[in-house]
Specification:
Elements: H1 3-18, H2 21-35, E1 46-49, E2 66-67, H3 75-79, E3 84-88, E4 97-103, E5 109-115, E6 123-128, E7 131-133, E8 140-147, E9 153-160, E10 166-174, E11 177-180, E12 186-191, E13 197-201, E14 204-208, E15 216-217, E16 229-233, E17 239-242, E18 245-247, E19 253-255, E20 260-266, E21 269-274, E22 277-282, E23 287-290, E24 295-302, E25 308-312, E26 317-320, E27 325-328, E28 339-344, E29 350-358, E30 365-374
Antiparallel strand pairs: 1-2, 1-23, 3-30, 4-5, 5-6, 6-7, 8-9, 9-10, 10-11, 12-13, 13-14, 14-15, 16-17, 17-18, 18-19, 20-21, 21-22, 22-23, 24-25, 25-26, 26-27, 28-29, 29-30
Length: 375
């Protein structure tokens, strides 16, 4: 059984247990980080307005939603694409499957893991302008987690420590060279355009100011005893902790608005969920908006212009704003609509993801990497 299947099965079980989709995703992501053995109806637009509360101890209440639409002059409304075309990512000879796990803001660079189909010889893959590279990161079962527009990527592997125990190690990849990040039991989650990296060290939230820096352990806001994951870093240095922690660029911790759980951050936009529906938060105004297309809010990605790619309640993938949505169909009609999204470009027009292809009974899913180009 591949990592994709493990995550999907785990997520489904958690959703049944808690009845709360954002907590299910957070729990699944937490276990993945610790293991590191490797990632409203559409006719009605609901918009919730809240004051951005970054103080500690905010009550965990539901966001109240009211009907609204963005103004006609909104760049999001004017530029939203009319169609997205899917294509499989190319694979090198000898490999049948590959799971893309990261992409850069331009859509030029992508990375993931190859699988020949028999659970042997799994290895990382890096696509640069469509050209395939097969790098060799340190450690076992390495996985890429994020890439910036310079093609600098971060990821995590497992290694044996001096006691022979398997622990995580984080690394940086650029121009074909790997550099191990400092810190014990480190895992890297994201990198921004300035080369600042976030992740965990000894299961504590951490930031590396550059590839050679010592990790800086981030403090948690009062009332937060356990952080599930440091998932993203914005270009101004703000950092997102799943599900409701937001650090300012100076490292001061705060909280996202009550009732909103964040999943991804980009250019002051945060995607996530509110009232158990897919939503986005504008950090400049504190406004939370429910997205069109019946998105779940379980797994979502946000572009620099506020478009959100996520999974709908019927299991299909969609690109959405508060006023409209567009289906992200698989490249083949007979491909099952199960999987996950991996990245979205800054302009929202390149989206990467993985579909699961059912194999023989008991053999689990095999990952098929897909990229959508929207226009």
């Amino acid at each position: 059984m591949t990592r994709l299947n493990l995550i999907m099965n785990s997520l489904a079980e958690e959703a049944k247990q808690y009845g709360d989709t954002e907590r299910a995703l957070a729990s699944a992501r937490r276990r993945r980080s610790l293991r590191r053995v490797a990632v409203s109806a559409s006719a009605t637009v609901a918009v919730a307005s809240v004051v951005l509360g970054l103080s500690a101890g905010l009550p965990d209440t539901e966001v109240t939603a009211t009907a609204s639409k963005p103004p006609p002059s909104s760049p999001v409304a004017e530029q939203f694409p009319g169609a997205c075309v899917a294509a499989r990512l190319p694979l090198p000879a000898g490999y049948r499957y590959g799971a893309v796990s990261a992409g850069d803001p331009t859509g030029r660079f992508m990375a993931g893991q190859l699988d020949p189909g028999d659970d042997s010889r799994r290895r990382p893959v890096f696509w640069a302008d469509g050209r395939i590279q097969l790098p060799s990161p340190p450690g076992l079962d390495p996985g890429f987690t994020d890439i910036n527009s310079r093609g600098a990527a971060v990821g995590t592997s497992t290694v044996r420590d001096t006691k022979g125990q398997l622990v995580t190690t984080a690394w940086y990849f650029h121009n074909g060279k790997f550099t191990t990040l400092k810190g014990e039991r480190a895992a890297a989650s994201a990198i921004n355009e300035q080369g600042v990296i976030v992740g965990t060290v000894n299961m504590a939230p951490a930031r590396w100011r550059d590839v050679g820096a010592e990790p800086e352990i981030l403090s948690l806001p009062p009332g937060v005893a356990d952080l599930l994951e440091v998932h993203g870093i914005d270009e101004d240095g703000s950092m997102l902790g799943i599900p409701r922690v937001l650090w300012h660029p100076d490292g001061t911790p705060g909280r996202l608005p009550a009732g909103f759980a964040g999943l991804d951050i980009r250019h002051r936009w945060v995607s996530g969920s509110a009232s158990r529906s897919g939503a986005r938060l504008d950090l400049r105004t504190g406004r939370v908006e429910i997205l069109d297309g019946q998105l779940q809010g379980v797994s979502s990605l946000i572009s620099a212009n506020g478009w959100v790619a996520g999974q709908a309640k019927d299991g299909t993938f969609r690109l959405a704003t508060p006023s409209r949505h567009l289906d992200l169909a698989p490249p083949d009609r007979d491909m099952p609509a199960h999987g996950r999204l991996a990245f979205i470009s800054d302009d929202g027009r390149t989206i990467g993801g993985v579909f699961g292809e059912e194999e023989k009974a008991g053999d689990g899913y095999r990952a098929i990497s897909v990229v959508w180009r929207c226009s």
